[in-house]
Amino acid sequence: MNELDLLEAMGGISAEYRRGAFEKPAPAHRRLPVLLGAACLLAAVCTSAFLLRGQQTVQPMTEQSREAEITEITRPGEQTTEFAVLQTETTASSATLSDTAETSTAASSQITGSAGTQAAAQEPAATANPAAVHTAAAVPGTTPPAQTTAAVPAETAPAEPAQRPQYPEALGTYTLPEALERAIAEAIGTDEYCYYLYQELPVSIPWKFDKCAIITKDRFYCILCRPTETSYEVDLVTSGVIPETTVYVSGPKTLEVTDSAGEAVQISLPEAGHWSGWPLSGCKKTDGVTECDCRIVWELIHMQERPDAFVSSVRTSYSESPFSRYTCEHITLNYTPEDFTMSRLNDPIDVRKVSSVSCTEGNVTRELSDEEITDAVEWLNQLEILDAEYRESYNIIYDIIDGTGKYVGIQNSVKFYFNEPISFGIFLGSWGGHVQERYIKELCISKRNDGSFFLQLHIDAPNRSDSNLRWMCYLLHNEDLHIYQQDT
Amino acid sequence: MEDSELIALFEQRDESAVSETTRQYGALCRSMAAELTGSPQDAEEICNDVMLAVWNAIPPEKPANFLAYLAGITRNLAMKRLRTRYAKHRGSGDRPAVLDELAACIPSGDDVEHELNRRLLTAAVDRFLSALPAQTRAVFVLRYTYGMPVEEIARRRSLGVSAVKVSLHRTRKKLQTFLKEEGFL
Question: Do the domain assignments include residue A146?
Fold first, then answer.
C-alpha cells in the first residue's frame, strides 16, 4: 500500500462527493446568517448550560462531538474568508484586517485573471520601435496580427479566436510549387487564401494544425491561418531563402533574408515540433498576453521573379517584459535547479540557480548582467499561472527538457533515400496541438558523400503510441509532392 | 459561454466546441493534470486527449456537470500516465507534489495484497469523507481526486489560500488517524 494507492482510492470515492466538489458553495452573504445563527444558538446553549450549572450535571462532550463542533463553528480561516468575500463583494476596496486584505487580494487576482495579466494592465501601453516600424501591407485583405495585438492592451484584448481551423481532408500526391502557387495566385487577396492552401495540402480532420510550413530546396514558406466564421484569415505569410540545401531542423535555425531596404534580416526557424505556434519570424504569443519581438511579413508571389518583392518589418515591444527593454528577440536561460521535478508550475525560478541569460537581437548575442538577470527572473516569476507557457516560449522548460529528456519505448522512424536533391516539409500534429519537441529525436536532411540525399524523421513518442499522435511527411521530388503519413 | 452551450456545440458536432472548451477550461485542465502527473508536457497532452475523449463521448453522453465531467476524464488519463511512470521511476524522486503530500498518510510498502486492499481502502476513504463537513470534503476531493491547485480551490470555494492549506493539512492528519484505526497502517 502506498500513496499512489491512496491517490487511486480518492478516484473511487462516491460520485456524490465528486459531484459535490464542483457544486458552488453558498454565497457568503447567505452563509453568514447561518453562521450567525449557529453562533447565537451556541451562545444560547452555553448560557443555558451556565445557568443550569449546579442544577444538573452536564454531560461532557465526547471527543467526536467536540471535534465536530470545532470543525463546524470555530473554523478561523473559513470565517475570515467569509468576511473577506463580503468585503470584496460589497466595497471592493482595501480592507483593514490583515487576513481579510490578503484574502481579498487573492480573490481579486483570481477573478480578474493571472497576476501577469494584471501586471501587464498596469504597465504603460505597448510601445513600438519607430525605427523599425513600417506599414505591414504585405498581403491584401489580411490583417497583420502584430498591429492588432499591439494596439490592444492586454487587459482589454479580445477573446482568443479559435486557433484550430477545420481543414478539408486531402491526401495524395500533389505538384509543387505549381499547385501551391496556383492556389496562392487564385486566392491571394481573399479570405479564402488559406482555405485553398489547405485544400492542396494534406491535413485530415480532426488532425489539426495551426499553420503550414513548407521547406523547399532553397526556400521556405510559412502560412499561418486563422479561421473566421465563414472562412480563413491569413495572419502571416513568410518566405525566405534557405542558405543551404542541407538543413538540419533539430533546433533553432537562423535564416537570413533581405528586407525591402536591402538590409539583412535574421529569421529564426522555430525548434522542431514548434511549428504550430507563431511562424518563423521569432514572434511569440501566449494566451491573453502578447509578446512579440519581431514580425516580418513577406508577400509570397514568385519570389524569384519578383526581386522587388515587398517585405515589411514590424517590431513591437511590450514594456512589461524586461526583455523588450533589453530588445531581446530571443532569450535563453541556463537554469539548472538541483531539485527540478517539473511538478510545480508555479514555483518561482530561483535566481540563484540561473547561471546565465543570453539575449539575442538580430545576430548579436550578449549575456545579461546580474542586475538584468534579476529583473528578468523577477518578471518571469510574476507571470504565475501563465508562467509555464511563458517559460516554454522562452525555451526555459525546453532547455531543461532537452538536457534531461529520456526516450524509451516505441519508436517510429522513417527513412527516405534519394539520388538527387530533394525538398521536404513536414506536418506534425496531434489533436488540438503540436507534437512536443521531446518526441522528435531526429529530423534532418543531409547530403551524403556519394551525392545522394538522406532525410530522416525519427519520432519517439512512448506516451502517444496508443493515442492520437500522427505524423505526416511530404517530400518534394521532381516537382511532385509525395505524402507519407503514419498509419493510424 | 455557459456549459450547456458548450455541450450543445458538441452535440451539434461543431468543432468549435473543442476550441471553446479549451479556451474556457484548458488552463484548469492543464493545471490539474500537471498537479497529478508532475509534468506540464504530459499535462498538455492529457488535456488534448481529454478534448478528444469529450468529442467522442458527447453525444450520446450529456453530463450534468460539465466541469466535473472534464475533471473526471482528466484525472483518469492523468492517473493512467502516472501509473506507468510511477512503475518505472519508483523511488527516483521524480514524483508530483500530491503524492509527496499524501505520502505522510501512508507508509511505502508492497507486501500487502494490493488489489484487495485498494478496494478496501477506497471504501474506507469513502467512509472517512462521509464524516467530513461538506466544505472540508469538497476541498479535499478537489485536491486529491482531481489534483486541483490550491489557489484554484480557494477561488472556487470562496476560501483563502491559507484556509485551504490548513484544511488540507488537518484533513490529512485526520485521514492518517482514521487509516490507523481502520487497520491500514
Answer: no
| Co-location of A467 and A423 in the same domain | yes
Q: Best mutation site among B45, B171, B174, B181 for testing chain A: the one with the most A CBs within 10 Å?
A: B45
Contact A397, B40 (CB under 8 A): yes
Domain interval for residue A431: 412-485
Considering the domain architecture, whether residues A325 and A395 belong to the same structural domain is answered as yes
The count of other CB atoms within 10 Å of the CB of residue A407 is: 14
DSSP string, A266-334: EEEEPPTT-TTSS-TTS-EEETTEEE-S-EEEE--S-GGG-TT--EEEE-EE-TT-HHHHTT-SEEEEE
Per-residue pLDDT of A232-282, as tens digits, reads 333 334 444 433 222 222 233 344 444 445 555 454 433 322 222 222 233
Note whether ipTM > 0.95 here: no
Task: State whether A328 and A387 are in the same domain.
Answer: yes
In chain B the domains, ranked by start, together with CATH numbers, are 3-91 (1.10.1740.10), 104-181 (1.10.10.10)
The conformational region for residue A230 under phi > 0 = left, psi -120 to 50 = alpha, else beta, is alpha
- Same domain as A419, residue A384: no
Q: Are residues A393 and A326 in the same domain?
A: yes
Task: Find the length of chain A.
Answer: 488
Domain end (from A380, A404, A428): A404
Taking the mean position of all CA atoms in its chain, how far away is CA A433? 10
CATH of the domain at A425: 2.60.40.10
Is residue A435 domain-shared with residue A481, that is, in the same domain? yes
Q: What's the average model confidence in pLDDT over A71-98?
A: 27
Task: Please give the grid coordinates belonging to residue A306.
Answer: 519578383
Nearest Cα of chain B lies from the Cα of A104 at a distance, in angstroms, of 8
Q: Is A310 contained in some domain?
A: no
pLDDT, position B139: 92
Question: By the CB < 8 Å criterion, does A164 face chain B?
Answer: yes
Q: Decide if B75 contacts B36 (C-beta within 8 A).
A: yes
The residue among B149 and A69 whose pLDDT is bigger is B149
Is residue A270 situated within a structural domain? Answer: no
Q: pLDDT tens digit string along A16-71?
A: 787 788 877 765 544 444 444 545 444 555 444 444 444 443 333 333 333 333 23
B contact residues 10-69, partner A, Cβ 8 Å cutoff:
15-16, 18-20, 22-23, 27, 30-31, 34-36, 38-42, 44-45, 48-49, 51-52, 55, 64-65, 67-68
- Does A28 contact chain B (CB < 8 Å)? yes
Q: Does A101 contact B at CB distance below 8 Å?
A: no
**Does the pLDDT value for residue B55 go beyond 60?**
yes
Q: Is residue A334 one of the residues assigned to a domain?
A: yes
Tally the domains of chain A.
3
User: In chain B, what residues touch A346 (CB-CB under 8 Å)?
Assistant: 149, 151
A and B: number of Cβ contacts within 8 A? 228
Domain end position, chosen among A378, A404, A430: A404
Q: Tell me the per-residue pLDDT of A357-371, one tens digit each, with 9 for 90 and over.
A: 776 666 677 787 887
Sheet holding A440-447, edge to edge: A412-418, A453-459, A440-447
Higher pLDDT, A307 or A182: A182
